[in-house]
Amino acid sequence: MPLLLSQLKKYWGVIAIVLVYIAIDVALCYKEIYFFNLIPVILFIVYMAIARLEILYFIIILIVPISIPLIEYIPSSPIDFYIPTEPMLFGVLIIFIYKLVLRNEFDRRVINHPVSYAILFSLFWLFITSVTSSMPVVSFKFLLARLWFIITFYLLAIFVFRDIKNISKFIWLYVISMLFVIIYAITRHFGYGLYDSDAAHFVMEPFFRDHTSYGAILSMLLFGFVGITYQSGKNILFRILFIVITILIITGLILSYTRAAWISVFCSMAILIVTVLKIKFRYLLIFGFLAFMYILGQKTEIIHKLEKNRQDSSADLQEHVQSMSNITTDESNLERLNRWNSAFRMFKERPVFGWGPGTYMFKYAPFQLARNKTLVSTDFGDRGNAHSEYIGPLAESGVLGSLSFILIVITSLLTGYRVYRKTEDKHLKQMVLAFILGLITYLVHGTLNNFLDTDKASALFWGFIAIFVSLDIYYLPTQYKQQKKSELGESVKK
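Above: the chain's sequence. Below: its structure in token form.
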């Protein structure tokens, strides 16, 4: 007993703090004030961020699919961000800068990679156009959010993925949380009837703000999940689990009634067939050129046929697919054209620096023409962005803003395909191809929508790119050395 007391005396300060905390927490809980309960969780996260930053990364990935906008809790809030992920991402930003820059714990091969150069150029141009922005506060907030997305989901992820096993952990953690959202959305959809396409617009709330972002994530996740699990084990229970999860993801994708997501999956499947059949790139280039020339020659007839299509969005899947090309009466398609036309007019007025990152939704209203407006248009311009990852930057950051994103896309895909071609591990080759196809679904979807200002899309988009870069930097050189050792050993034996 005296020994125990002497040990306790050493920690009297800690014990006193804990007792004071418990007393304050009990008093606040009695008054129905519960935020104080979060302090141990916050302290644990801070400790993990300092001691094991990669574990904090996995915690964030697990939370991302179920993060909720602040405005859902505080409708009158003047600012909005996803909680609890974005405050955690800001913390990672600070700690990452301290540990890897100020303490010089940074692998220069990462920064010197072509993808990183493209990303750095994009960030540099976002900074320049934030300075020249028509709304600097909005633009610098946009830049800060983009920065913490890239720091966590790209730079930190590259170091996490040095251990190839962590790639599977990344997908599984995202899938586990996403399954909760899928089951939640399907269950709510049952209440309205599965054929109610209008219900598909809100059954995933509050986790997703609309069905299009929900569909985009599911299409990316479908390829990513199949890539890491297909043929990865012969255990019958694992195979059943794989089939069940895959069916749930596909069901969620279908019931999202997101036409752009469906198109993106079909495009990736076509690319998969081309890759498996090993069709040479020059043949695809010739085919693409001939198709473009044909469309150019038949432009008038094609537009005439599109204008004759009067099929609106529908609960019938066949009719819903047909409505994709309706540019006459479908409100969703017409409003998207209205947003694009507004973006091009904004670009023409400020072609070099644009109006500033993140400002489109505040500035596009005056650029709408009366003949382009639809029933869902608003004179206040308060219903979203430009609906394109390629056109939106034109209005916000000028021509270099759009080109910088395209440069990221090109360098990322080239890196992915280089890793795919050079790796000799069949399972890893399968995984890399799946991530390439998953990334392509977003790039196709990105022609019709843009979601990289959200944590949910950024985690997968930058995560897939980080996988390519990490394997290119850390895995391929190791594989090459092993090959050389093997060849040397064989020559010695001979």
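Residues 306-312 have pLDDT under 50 and may be disordered.
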